[in-house]
Design a protein that fits this description.
The protein is α/β, with parallel strands linked by helices and about 350 residues long. It has 2 domains: about 210 residues, inorganic pyrophosphatase (n-terminal core), CATH 3.90.1640; about 120 residues, Diaminopimelate Epimerase, Chain A, domain 1 (Roll), CATH 3.10.310. Helices cover about 40% and strands about 15% of the residues. It has 12 helices and 11 strands. The strands form 2 sheets. The chain has a 6-stranded mixed β-sheet, with helices on both faces. A 5-stranded parallel β-sheet has the order 2-1-3-4-5. A hairpin with a 2-residue loop joins strand 8 and strand 9. It is globular and about 55 Å long. The N and C termini lie far apart (about 45 Å).
C-alpha cells in the first residue's frame, strides 16, 4: 500500500501525526452544504483520533447534516454548532478536511487569519488556499476520504466498520460512483478494502440515494424547465429563484440532494452544465460541471467567481441578483473558454 501513497501525503503524514500526538482535544467540522465526503471524512477522523486517545468533536458548521446521511455511523452525534459559536480555547488543534478556503469553514462568518489555533488542512482541491499551519493538499486524490484512508494506513490506525462506512461513502460519492477522474486502481483498491470491512455498503448507498421527498422532485422539475443555452450551446444554465423556492415550499435539504449541473452536462454538445440556485435573496449557489475538463476546466471559472473546486466539478456563491449572476457567468465563460 505505501508504494502507492502520493509523495505529498508521505511528506505530510508524519508532521500531522506529530501535531495530533501533542494535542488533547481536537476540533473537526463539516463544510457548508455538507456532502458525504465532508461528513464521512470528519466522522472517520473523529473515530481515528479517539482510537489514539484524543477527545474529538465534530461540529456541523453552517448547515444541517442532510437526512440522507443519517445511516453514516456517528453522524447523529455531530454537534449542532457553527464555527463562530465554538470557543476555540477548548481545543488544542483544528483539522479542516475537504475545505479549500476559509469560506468553506464558514460562509456566514469566515474565520480570519492567522487562525488562533494550530490548524491542519487535509484536502484534494487544486484551488485550496493553503491556509493551515500544515497543508496536505493532494490533487491526485478524488476525495478527502481517500487521503484519510492512506493516512490511517501510514499511522497504523485500525479502520473499524464505522470508519469504513464513512470513508467508503466519501469516496463513492466524490468519484460519482467511480466514474470521474482521478479514479484509478488505487481508489478501486481502497474501496474494495473498505467494502470488505463494511460488507453492507450497498444498503448504506441505497438508503442515501433513495430518501428523496416530493419537494425534491418539484425542485428538479423547476430547474430543468428553466434551461437556457449560451455561446453556441456550449453552456447550459438552469436557474431557480428564491421566490420559486418559497412558493413551492422547497426546503434547503432538497436543493442539496440533486445536482442539476450534472444532469445538464450529460447532454451531448452541452459542454458545461451550470445551475444557479438562489438559496436566499441575492445569494446564489453556482454549481459547475463539464464533459471535457481539459478544454472546459470549470475550476478556473469557479475561481474567477470567487469559488473553487476541481477541473470537472466546481462551485461558487454570488451575492447579486439572478439576472446579474447569469450575465456574469456567461461573460466569464466566454472570456475563459474563448467562445
Amino acid at each position: 500500500m505505501n508504494a502507492d501513497i502520493s509523495p505529498i501525503t508521505k511528506e505530510k503524514a508524519p508532521l500531522i501525526l506529530a501535531e495530533i500526538k501533542k494535542a488533547t482535544s481536537v476540533l473537526l467540522h463539516c463544510h457548508p452544504l455538507p456532502d458525504p465526503d465532508s461528513t464521512g471524512s470528519a466522522m472517520a477522523m473523529k473515530f481515528a483520533l479517539e482510537q489514539m486517545g484524543k477527545k474529538a468533536t465534530v461540529i456541523q458548521g453552517d448547515s444541517a447534516i442532510p437526512r440522507a446521511f443519517q445511516h453514516f455511523p456517528g453522524v447523529l452525534g455531530i454537534v449542532k454548532k457553527k464555527f463562530s459559536e465554538v470557543d476555540l480555547k477548548d481545543f488544542d488543534l483544528f483539522i479542516s478536511i475537504d475545505s479549500g478556503s476559509l469560506n468553506m469553514i464558514s460562509q456566514e462568518h469566515p474565520p480570519n487569519l492567522p487562525m488562533p489555533i494550530e490548524t491542519i488542512v487535509i484536502d484534494h482541491h487544486a484551488t485550496n488556499d493553503q491556509y493551515g499551519d500544515i497543508n496536505l493538499v493532494d490533487v491526485s486524490a478524488p476525495a478527502a476520504a481517500f487521503i484519510l484512508f492512506q493516512l490511517f494506513d501510514m499511522w497504523d490506525v485500525s479502520i473499524t466498520y464505522d470508519m469504513a462506512v464513512n470513508l467508503f461513502m466519501g469516496i463513492y460519492t466524490d468519484t460519482g460512483g467511480f466514474k470521474y477522474a482521478p479514479t484509478d486502481y488505487r481508489v478501486i483498491g481502497a474501496a474494495a478494502e473498505l467494502a470488505r470491512l463494511a460488507p453492507n455498503f450497498t444498503e448504506v448507498i441505497f438508503s442515501m440515494e433513495n430518501s428523496r421527498t416530493k419537494e425534491a422532485l418539484y425542485f428538479q422539475a423547476m430547474a430543468l424547465s428553466s434551461i437556457e443555452t449560451f455561446l453556441e450551446d456550449n453552456i447550459a444554465i438552469a436557474t431557480v429563484s428564491y421566490r420559486n423556492l418559497v412558493d413551492k415550499k422547497i426546503p434547503e435539504e432538497c436543493i442539496r440532494g440533486i445536482s442539476i449541473s450534472d444532469i445538464l452536462k450529460s447532454v451531448v454538445g452541452w459542454n458545461v452544465g451550470i445551475s444557479l440556485i438562489e438559496r436566499q435573496p441575492h445569494e446564489i449557489k453556482v454549481s459547475l460541471r463539464t464533459r471535457d475538463k481539459d478544454i472546459f476546466d470549470v475550476s478556473r471559472l469557479a475561481a474567477v467567481l470567487g469559488g473553487g473546486g476541481h477541473r470537472a466539478a466546481a462551485a461558487a456563491v454570488l451575492k447579486m441578483s439572478m439576472t446579474d449572476a447569469k450575465k456574469l457567468v456567461v461573460e466569464k465563460a466566454k472570456e475563459l473558454y474563448n467562445l
